[in-house]
Design a protein that fits this description.
Length: about 425
């Protein structure tokens, strides 16, 4: 459930008419609903009631510091994958003990920064990484709390570009090899093995791959404890899908996912003495944000009608990158108009700059606004300035107030970053 809806023929974000934001900010822009973000966090947290837990929002999904801060105030931690994301999380007031650090390519300076603030857990993805982390920790006089990210070799049955838990993917350490790597940690003075981690992919709509993966990692925890390791925490990653409004299989509700987690855990452990870490990203932010764009032209093609928007693939990359489906709704709803079939495209000079094909929608004309839904996760964070287009702004709504949380980075600001050497 979200807080974007039509009232008296116009679309609102909570109690703010989107036209009002468009007038002040211009288009295109992202807008997030604070109540929706908070609600999604609460729903996910409620689903895990009874487990000792820490919900580390996957910062890569939406890394605006205002978003991180409001989630942090509700108790969320952060899952970061770079020194940059670590800085954002800290700036949002998330303390080190609520931060986990994932990713296959952590550089020594990023490890140092995380060691200095005493993060909760490094999710280590390879032996070379473990060795560098050990050396950095010893140098700084610290001990790094480590979980190995296990690659359980399960098929997440999601888009191949966002599937991460198969043996052929670059992520994690083979679950067959992991026990040996934990043994090696016993010899490493800078490393404390405290947990086990898994994340098999994103936008999963089937619980079975999760169940298989979680069963394997809990088995691993039990084995490791038997081998004398003091494993106190388990990180089950993120990945639960959200409804995008297409006909694809609807993802399970967080409560159903939570029940599955609890069932697997209780089946396998007589006494559940573990802290659970989760890393949801899309589930929290995806349907808490939309992108609003203005129609520039309506163009009659050969047998098709193109609605040319002022937003493009550089503002929202998902349709071009993953053939992702996003609902597109008119901001001004006209009840009586008969719907027609259109393609929504952007102004960028690539055929891939297409948001949707063959959508039924009321007739639109230049100047109308549309809302591209479910854009709060992997939207603004993946935007860029291709075709020298300004970087899209972000707005946060709470009740009847709204605030710009990242201004539009204008073309002059972008061009000003280029430097011309004196020999040119
Ligand atoms: N933890 C780790 C280690 C991850 O790699 C990811 C996402 C998450 C958590 C959060 O997953 P979520 O709960 O959001 O599914 N740009 C793509 C999605 C890439 C996901 C990458 N990793 C998209 O737009 O669909």
């Amino acid at each position: 459930m979200d807080y974007f809806f039509h009232k008296d023929g116009s679309m609102f974000a909570e109690d703010v008419d989107l036209h009002e934001i468009a007038r002040e900010v211009g288009t295109p822009f992202y807008v997030y609903s604070q109540s929706t973000l908070e609600r999604h966090l609460r729903v996910f947290d409620d689903a895990m009631t009874g487990l000792d837990r820490l919900i580390c929002f996957a910062v890569k999904a939406n890394s605006n510091v205002a978003v991180l801060k409001l989630l942090a105030k509700q108790g969320a931690g952060a899952d970061v994958v770079s020194g940059g994301e670590l800085k954002r999380a800290l700036k949002a007031g998330i303390p080190g003990e609520r931060i986990v650090f994932s990713g296959v390519g952590k550089k020594p300076y990023e490890m140092d920064a995380a060691l200095k603030v005493g993060i909760k857990q490094f999710n280590v993805e390879s032996e070379p990484e473990l060795e560098v982390l050990n050396a950095r920790a010893i140098k700084l006089g610290k001990v790094a709390p480590v979980a190995l990210r296990i690659n359980p070799d399960v098929d997440a049955k999601t888009h191949e570009k966002i599937s991460t838990g198969k043996a052929e993917n670059k992520f994690g350490i083979s679950w067959l090899k992991a026990r040996d790597v934990y043994e090696k940690m016993k010899e490493m003075d800078g490393i404390a093995p405290v947990g086990v981690d898994v994340h098999i992919g994103s936008q999963l709509t089937d619980l079975e791959p999760f169940r298989l993966a979680f069963t394997k990692v809990i088995e691993m925890v039990k084995d490791l404890r038997e081998a004398g390791h003091d494993i106190t925490q388990i990180d089950l990653g993120g990945g639960l899908g959200i409804p995008y409004g297409d006909s694809a299989e609807a993802p399970p509700l967080p409560s159903v996912y939570g029940q599955m987690v609890q069932d697997v855990v209780k089946e396998m452990m007589a006494e559940v003495d573990l802290e659970f870490i989760f890393e949801p990203g899309r589930l929290i932010a995806g349907n808490a944000g939309i992108m609003v764009s203005e129609v520039i032209y309506v163009k009659e093609g050969d047998g098709r009608k193109f609605v040319i928007l002022d937003a493009a693939m550089n503002d929202l990359a998902r349709p071009a990158m993953y053939d992702a489906y996003h609902n597109i709704d008119p901001v001004n709803l006209s009840e009586e108009a008969e719907e027609e079939l259109v393609d929504f495209v952007g102004p960028v000079c690539e055929s891939g700059d297409t948001f949707a094909k063959g959508r039924l929608i009321q007739p639109l004309e230049a100047g109308d606004l549309v809302a591209i839904k479910s854009a709060g996760a992997y939207g603004a964070v993946m935007s860029n300035s291709y075709n020298t287009r300004a970087l899209v702004p972000e707005v946060l709504v709470r009740g009847d107030q709204f605030s710009i949380i990242r201004h539009r980075i204008e073309v002059d600001e972008l061009i000003g970053q280029d430097q011309i050497p004196n020999w040119v």
